[in-house]
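> forwarded from #structure-qc
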């Protein structure tokens, strides 16, 4: 049997599942684990990818949260057999470099998306560069985001961005409530491109940036690219693999 390290969200359902599973299968130390099994929702899985997972330890999430798009269904029985049959997917996160108006720089990674938002009652004004080429002189909107394929079904989809299959090798550039250009729906970009957002009039129209759960306030510039040097492995039951979920999600009404 694989050495399993369990982790769980703090709410009661996830903690009860943690107690049940560790009683059945034990709890391996993280440095001796063959697989990590987070119990909760997608937020718990993202936290695990950031804090516990490495490229050598795959993650098999089980849903004890609300949405759990990136999670497998919860069942206590036959977990070793499920892990043996599970399909493996390699994902690479986005990297964010955010520069504040005071000149400080912050870097982080995001497995879902990097987004920038207005931080006042006024809409943000943002210039968009792709590989240092100015593509849009000014987007007036609540914000804008860059999403990875794995994260395209999350906030990106809620903002009317496209769902991206993992094999598409694309990034989704999606505006958030655009005012001008009013009908602009965003762009699809090959994953090797670098995207840079420059905030116009940040003193009067302050903007914050987020990379998954990390937030940086009062930014003037954000640069985003996909990191090929960082990788994580997600495991899914073969009957409900991630590619199938992404395709199926596009037909849900």
């Amino acid at each position: 049997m694989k050495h399993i390290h369990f982790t769980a969200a703090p709410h009661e359902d996830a903690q009860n599942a943690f107690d049940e599973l560790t009683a059945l299968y034990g709890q391996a130390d993280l440095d001796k684990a063959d697989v990590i099994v987070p119990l909760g929702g997608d937020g718990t899985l993202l936290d695990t990818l950031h804090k516990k997972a490495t490229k050598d330890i795959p993650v098999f999430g089980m849903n004890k949260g609300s949405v759990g798009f990136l999670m497998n269904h919860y069942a206590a029985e036959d977990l070793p057999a499920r892990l043996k049959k599970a399909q493996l997917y390699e994902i690479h996160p986005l990297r964010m470099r955010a520069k504040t108006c005071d000149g400080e720089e912050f870097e982080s990674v995001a497995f879902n998306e990097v987004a920038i938002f207005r931080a006042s009652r006024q809409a943000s004004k943002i210039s968009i560069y792709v590989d240092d080429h100015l593509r849009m002189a000014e987007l007036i909107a609540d914000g804008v985001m860059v999403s990875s394929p794995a994260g395209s079904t999350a906030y990106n989809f809620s903002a009317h961005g496209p769902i991206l299959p993992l094999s598409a090798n694309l990034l989704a550039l999606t505006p958030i409530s655009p005012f001008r250009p009013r009908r602009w729906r965003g762009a699809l970009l090959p994953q090797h491109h670098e995207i840079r957002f420059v905030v116009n009039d940040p003193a009067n129209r302050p903007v914050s940036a987020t990379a998954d759960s990390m937030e940086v306030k009062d930014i003037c510039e954000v640069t985003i690219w996909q990191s090929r040097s960082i990788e994580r492995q997600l495991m899914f039951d073969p009957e409900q693999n991630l590619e199938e979920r992404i395709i199926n999600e596009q037909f849900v009404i």
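QC bot note: Helices lie at 12-25, 42-51, 79-85, 155-158, 242-249. Residues 94-226 form a domain with the Tumour Suppressor Smad4 fold (CATH 2.60.200.30).
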